[in-house]
Amino acid sequence: MYRYDEFDHTLVSERVAQFRDQVRRRLSGALSEDEFKPLRLMNGLYLQLHAYMLRVAVPYGVLSARQMRKLAHIARRYDKGYGHFTTRQNIQYNWPRLEEVPDILEELAEVEMHAIQTSGNTIRNTTADPFAGVAADEIADPRIYAELIRQWSTLHPEFSFLPRKFKIAITGAPHDRAAIKVHDIGIAMRRGPDGEPGFEIWVGGGQGRTPVIAKRIREFLPEPDLLSYVEAILRVYNQFGRRDNIYKARIKILVNDLGIEAFAEAVEAEWRATRDGTLRLPESEIARIAQHFAPPDYDPVPAPSADFAEHRLATPEFVQWVRSNTAPHKQPGYSIVTISLKPEGGIPGDATAAQMEAVADLSEVFGFGEIRVTKEQNLVLPDVKQFELYALWEALKRHDLATANIGLLTDIIACPGLDYCNLANARSIPIAQQISRRFASLKQLHDIGGLTLNISGCINACGHHHVGNIGILGVDKKGTEFYQVTLGGDAGMDAALGDIVGPAFAEDAIVDAVETIVTTYLEIRQDGERFIDTYRRTGLAPFKETLYAAH
Amino acid sequence: MRLQAVTANRLLDGEVVYLTLAREWSPLLDDCCVVADADAGAELLAAAAKSVQDRLVLDPYLFDIKVDDGAISPMSRREIIRAAGPSVRPDLGRQPVQPEPVWE
Questions:
Q1: Interface residue A475 vs chain B (CB under 8 A)
Q2: Does position A284 have pLDDT exceeding 90, yes or no?
Q3: What are the chain B neighbours of A80 within 8 Å (beta carbons)?
Q4: Where does B25-99 show beta strands of DSSP type E?
C-alpha cells in the first residue's frame, strides 16, 4: 500500500488545523453559514436530513486493517456505531456533530486518511478496479496510476473551482469493474505494439440527470504522458465548461456540445504545449510509486488443495459462496474474496463498527492486512489462500458477512435515498430490503444468475440506476413515492444505459414488478443467457407485455 | 385551511428541530407552533431568522402539517422521515411519529 511521505503528512495535518479553526470561528459567530458552507464542503461535511454527514475518502478503494479499525473506532466514538460504504468506494458517517468533526479528521490523519475533495467542484477520489493488483485478467496494476493521479489532483490550485465536480476511474483489466465509461474520465490500461504499458482514455461519461456513455478520446496514451494528458482535458473543461447552469456544467455536456472530434482537437492543442513539461512522468517516479504496490510475499501453495475440494463436496452453502463471492487470483492457490454487505433485509453498504473490526482482523489472518471497497458497496479481501476459504467463510458467518450473493439479484446498489439524503425524492433502502427478502432463496438467486439491480432515490443517480440491468429510480408524484424501472443498463466494457420500460410503479407494486421482470426473463431465456444477454436479444417488448398486461 | 410549522437543523449537531410557541427550538414535532395564515407564518420565519443569526439553527423553512385529534403530523414523506428518523433504522432518531407502515 502507498504510505504517506512527509509532504502528504504535512498537507493533511495542516488541513485538520485549518478546519478546526474554521469550525471554531463558525461556532463563535466570526463566520456565517454562507461563509462556512464552502469550507465544510471542501472537507466532505454535508448537512443531510437528520444530521451532518461526513464523507471520508478511501483512495481508489484501498484500506489497510489499521485504517479499517480507525473507521470502526470513529463509527463507535463519534457516530452511531456504523458507517455506509458508497458507490465511489468511500465511507460516509451519518451522525457526526459539527464540533467533533475536527477531532474525527485528526484521528483520520493518524492513519493517513482525510475527507479532502470528497465534495465540491473539484477532482474527486479516483476510483479503481477493486481487484487491482490481484486479478487474474489484469494487464497492469492501476493503483500506481491512481496514486499518481491522487497526488497530482490533491489541492491542485488550478482545479479547485471547476465548473462542476469531476470523477476519474481507472481499470487495469479488460473486464471493467470500475465503470469507467460512466465517468468524466475513464482510463483503461493497455499494452502498446511493443508491450509497453499505456492507457485507453474515455471522456464525457456520466450518470445523473443526463446519463451519457463516455466517448473514446485516445486509443493509446503512452505511460509517461498520463498526467499531462489528463491535465490537458481538465484545462479544456475548466476553460470551456459551462458555469451558468449547474445542470449543464459537467464535462459530458461540453463534449456533447463540441462533439468529440472538436473536443479532442482542443485537448491535443493544449497537450502539445505541455506534454514535455513538468508533468511528464519519469521512469524513476513511476518505479518509486510502484514499490508501494509490489506484490506481497505469496506462499507457493498448491492449487486447489484437497481440503478445499473436500469442503466443496460436503457443504452446498459453501459451494454457493465460493461460486459467487470468489474470483480468480493471478497467484496460483489464492482467491479474491468479496464480502457481501447485502444480507437479507439489510441496508446495502452499511457495516457496523464490530463488522469493520472483524473484517480488519480477518484481513490479517487470511491475507496481508489489506481490504478493498467496491463500487457495489461491498468489501474485498484480495489475497486469500484457497485452502483457507472454508475457515474464512465460517468466520464471516459469525459476523453476518457470508451472504453468497455477489453479482446476483440481491447484491443491490442503493443510495441512502430519502431516509437520509437532502436531495432524494423517494426512499431507496426499503425497496432494496424488500427485494432482498423476496429473493432470499440462495438456490433461486443462483438459478437466476448474474443480474445487477441498482436503485437511486432521485435523478442524481448515486445508486447507479442507469447502468443496472434492472434500474429503479424513485420519483415523487404529489408527495407519494413512485418508482420508474429501466432495463438493459450495463456498467462494464459493453456499457449501456437502461431503457425506461413504461409508467412508474407505486411503492407497493415495485417489488412485484421486479418479480415479474425476473419471471419473464426465466421463461424466455435461452441456454447460457444472462439477463442482459436475453434483454439485448429481445428488447423491452416481452417485459412490457408482462408488466403492463393487466393495465 | 393550510396549517404550517417551522423546522430547521441545529447548528451544533444538525439535529432536526421545530420552532415552539415560546420561540424556542424543540426536537419534538409535538412542541411546534402551528400557524394557519401567511402573516403568522412570516412572523415565525422572522423569529427563526434571528435564531440563524444567533447561531442556533440552519436553513429554517415552513412546512405543511395536519392535526388530527390534537396529534400533529407532517404532510410530506420527507418531513415524516425528518420528524421520525430514518424509516429503515427505527432504533435511531427520535421516532416520535412512526412513518406509515408501507411494507408488510
A1: no
A2: yes
A3: 92
A4: 25-26, 57-68, 71-74
Query: Which residue in the set A419, A476, A508 is minimally distant from B86, CB to CB?
Result: A419
Compute the nearest-CA separation of B21 from chain A (Å).
Answer: 22
The DSSP element (H or E) to which A268 belongs, if any, is: helix A260-274
Of B15, B88, B103, the CB nearest to A419: B88
Closest CA–CA distance from residue B77 to any residue of chain A (Å): 7
CB contact under 8 A, B81 and A99: no
Q: List CB contacts of A297: < 8 A, sequence separation 6 or more.
A: none
Cα–Cα distance, A217 to A230 (Å, whole number): 11
List CB contacts (< 8 A) between A476 and chain B: 77
Q: Note the pLDDT tens digit of each residue in A147-203.
A: 999 999 999 999 999 999 999 999 999 999 999 999 999 999 999 999 999 999 999
Instruction: State the complex-level ipTM.
Output: 0.91
CA distance A465 to A102: 34
Which of A33, A481, A508 is the closest to B58 by Cβ? Answer: A33
Helices and strands per DSSP (H, E), number in chain A: 18, 21
Long-range contacts (CB closer than 8 Å, 24 or more residues apart) made by A287-294: A289/A2, A289/A144, A289/A147, A289/A148, A290/A141, A290/A144, A292/A1, A292/A2, A292/A3, A292/A144, A292/A147, A293/A1, A293/A2, A293/A133, A293/A141, A293/A143, A293/A144, A293/A147
- Among candidate residues B36, B14, B39, the one with its CA nearest the CA of residue B25: B14
Q: Write out pLDDT tens, residues A65-107.
A: 999 999 999 999 999 999 999 999 999 999 999 999 999 999 9
User: Scanning every residue of chain A, which has its alpha carbon at the shortest distance from the alpha carbon of B79?
Assistant: A49
Chain B partners of A479 at a C-beta cutoff of 8 Å?
Answer: 75-77
Longest dimension (CA), chain A: 69
Dist. CA A229–CA A450, nearest whole Å: 36
d(CA A409, CA A484): 18
Distance between CA A333 and CA A339 in Å, rounded?
19
Specify whether the CB–CB gap between A483 and A504 falls below 8 A: yes
Which residues does chain B have with pLDDT short of 70? Answer: 95-104
Cα(A53)–Cα(A39) distance, rounded to whole angstroms? 14
Cβ–Cβ < 8 Å for A94, A84: yes
Amino acid at A475: V
Task: Tell me which residue in B13, B52, B55 faces A51 most closely, judged by beta carbons.
Answer: B13
Q: What is the 3-state secondary structure (H, E, C) of A38-74?
A: HHHHCCCEEECCCCEEEEECCHHHEEEHHHHHHHHHH
Distances (CA, A) of A59 to A67, A265, A269, A443: 12, 31, 31, 36
For β-strands A505-506 and A499-500, DSSP reports them as unpaired
pTM score of the predicted model: 0.95
The label of the residue with cell 493503483 reads: A143
Sequence-separated (6 or more) residues with CB below 8 Å from residue A35: none
- Residue B104: predicted pLDDT: 36
Predicted confidence (pLDDT) per residue in A454-493, tens digit: 999 999 999 999 999 999 999 999 889 999 999 999 999 9
